[in-house]
Amino acid sequence: MSSEPAMIDPAAGNLHGSPRSIREDRRPIGCLVEVGLLVMLFFVYAGDPPPMVNESHYLVKAKNYWQPDWCASDMLASSAKAHVTFYAVFGWLTQLFSLSTTAWIGRFVGWTMLAFGLQQLCRSLFQRPYASLAVATVWIAGIEYGNLAGEWVVGGIEAKVPAYGFVLLGLSEMVRRRWNRVWPLLGLASAFHVLTGGWSVVAAAFAWWITERGQPDRRPLLTPWLFVGGAIALFGLLPAVALTLRAGSEDSATAARIYTYYRLRHHLLPADFAASWYLRHAVLLLATFVAAYQFRGDAKMVRAGAFTLGAVLIAATGFLLGYLPSYDPDLAARLLRYYWFRLSDAAVPLMLGLCIAGMLLDHRSTTFRVGLAGLALAVTLVSTSAYQSARLKIPPTVSNDLLGYDAGAPVDRQQQVYRDWLAVCRWARLSSPPNEVFLTPRHQQTFKWYAERGEVVNWKDVPQDARSLLEWNRRFQEIFPRRLGHIRVTIRYDDLRQFRRRFGARWMIVDQRICGDRLPLVRLYPVAGERNDTFAVYELPEL
């Protein structure tokens, strides 16, 4: 095996001449096959039954966006809409298909966008077919096993999935120095998900500053295309800004504290991240830095690395803001709610995947072997994760591990609880009018998905506008009081009567594993001839 250094094309900035490389198949059929293989990989990894994480949130709101009378009595479904572009583009499917079918269609559209964007990025960098498969495998493994704040990209359909597809397309143009194309693509990403796209714009601007300054043929930043991208981004920015304008400053500050310090602290507050999260992310960062250093002479990889460095610096800023709550908790809550760690969680493993693909195309024996070892590790991790999901055979949103109750229960027990949950939701859908409102168990997030009925409050389904968020917090504290560990609903007659009067809730679904099967209330389900070992429905006391 030759040990001479890899050859660099100064103009293109790509490794070339490798004995292992195959010239890219530029025929459309070759591109379609590569995109199809990527979609198949995404399906194997994330093809769980719907709803996946956040699908029961996004698609419920999307259906209500197109059909306002659907679950109109539910606080989340009828609350202000933040991701209007996503609801407008994908929500109409809910008028033709079930939520589950819509989820599958949306997934394949989102996965195809990710696959096409990744294929174009790898074509820009390597000009070799199927390099994107190696990149995707490392990317998926790196995100799942190396994230700091719980980010994911390949999964169910939600607003950030098409947003990341446009980010990848923007990166493919960036590495080619076609900056005028970058900004509209990142504007489209921002239109779908303002934070994903917005932080990508910041990282791209940083990459422009790093790679274009001092160049004799420097590409300008302030061009009409930058403003075109900004105008497109308004489709995502304006609905998000409107959420904060409907409440006074005091309510906005209180809502920010609830959002940052209580409901989403596991994504937003650095002090809440486990030490193991910091360790695994540090390993990922170190591996990416060492791998990227091998390509310091490759102009295209340098531009991709500069974007990644910009994402890391955004996360570092968020980490510094993590010290602010001790000095100004209100200001810290307002600032930390912007998901400072989201882009870094996605960009760092992507860069590692690009580097490993580059190593596999390098004709130096040692470099190739290191890349092969990295890919083998990623394949092992992704295969393990896919197997664990497949053996459960239930949607992730109803698994015990996600919901936090009876975590680690045997597969057969989780499947039985799932069947019982479907049964009680079916009863609720068939036995109540469309505008009915239920009290539901705290550790569930799919009642609206299966029952198509409103609920008083749900831990997962937190609204995003300030007024609704404050109301969500009041309801949650009342119905799942701290004295009962935030998991048991109160069964005081006076409280239940108040719930019926205030929220219009006549019926309450309880988890009998927590509350037992002998509550001092009228049980409506299961009754004679019916069986449900996990859930029961009770009528709230009359006023």
Could you explain how this protein is built, in words?
By secondary structure, the chain is mainly alpha-helical. The protein has 2 domains: 25-392, no CATH class; 401-539, no CATH class. The chain contains 22 helices and 7 strands. It has helices at 28-46, 55-66, 84-90, 99-126, 131-146, 160-174, 179-192, 194-212, 224-244, 249-263, 265-268, 275-293, 299-321, 329-336, 342-360, 365-392, 400-403, 411-431, 447-451, 466-479, 493-503, 512-515; strands at 7-8, 15-16, 437-439, 454-455, 507-511, 522-525, 535-539. It has a 5-stranded mixed sheet. Strands 1-2 form a two-stranded antiparallel ribbon. α1 (28-46) packs across α4, α1 (28-46) runs parallel beside α5 and α7 packs parallel to α9. It is globular and about 80 Å long. The chain starts with 6 loop residues before the first strand and ends with a strand.
